[in-house]
């Protein structure tokens, strides 16, 4: 999988930056479910979630699949994938590529509309999407409440997102992103651990732990 896919999709959880809000009606039942997820997440001090990222091409053929972990503490986050780490302390972000032993450093734009992993679990949906509740499904013994979100800005490459919420735990179980080019990205949460003891050092990049790393500072 190309690095830009991982960086683009995971640096921002699922990036839909700068979408313009337009008039439209959303399903109040869907909002109730999404608000439940948001409120629960806000009550947690930290979250550690393991996930599987699947990239699908035409005819739903899986072209790549990777396991990863996301660590969350307030607005701070760290995403680890095979060969890549994406870290942010909400002031500075670091994107590390293992194969070239290189880290790219950027300032976090607080005014940006870009989604972060933390925002993914909160009320990101209110401004940039219309949403409706679909039929419930059962997967791996879990009852899932499925919500279809469509961006209000129709010029974007993403035209639909399906969020599947575990009805019992009120947490996101799966999210599938549909692009106009035919690609699908599925994030499946395989394990969700709340209130783990995470130090602030988790959310910074320590170059001493990466001997010989090349630092590309774009700040």
From TrEMBL:
User: In its keyword annotation, does this UniProt entry include Mitochondrion?
Assistant: no
Q: Please provide the record's keywords in A-Z order.
A: Lipoprotein, Signal
Q: Which domain of life is it from?
A: Bacteria
Which one Pfam family would you cite for this protein?
A: LolA
Query: Does the record bear Secreted in its keywords?
Result: no
- Chain coiled-coil ranges: none
Q: What is this protein called?
A: Outer membrane lipoprotein carrier protein LolA
Signal peptide bounds: 1-20
